[in-house]
Design brief:
It is built from 6 helices and 7 strands. It is an alpha+beta fold.
Length: about 180
Amino acid sequence: MRIREARPEDAPRIAWVHLESWRTTYPGIIPQAYIDSLTVENGTKNWQERLAAADGPIVFVAEDEAGIFGFAAGGAIMHPVEGFDGELGAIYLLATHQQRAAGAALVRQIAGSLVEQGFASMAVWVLRDNPACRFYERMGGVRVAEQGIRIGGVTLPEVAYGWRDVRTLAPEVAR
């Protein structure tokens, strides 16, 4: 496994990983009709724009000999949580590559980037019923907020996990 900064040409594979992750994670949580309406083409356009934006998030990909199987994006907080300035905005891995340390490595890479940019803390919003909540708790995240989010015509409960000192996730950068 290797983690590197994403490049514009990675947008189609990032979009595919994003969509496949939704298809395996969210049935029974998000309305299926909404999941079925998502396309790699629309996702690719979205990721091309995000990767090209000067003020866009920092994006890292995880890859192996078969190619990109996961990614994470982060930067300045976009979905406010009181007392937090940085955000893990997205992290997705193919189901076949979960629970193999890639997710933790991606989180640490984002955390290190946030530290280097001068951010002190990090939050991540996640659907309350997403099994990944346990992952954030194992990484030391603490529930710090809750709200509803509208997806596919329904309001779903979402929780924020936070790390008040993002350096705890990136000790090699924090020195």
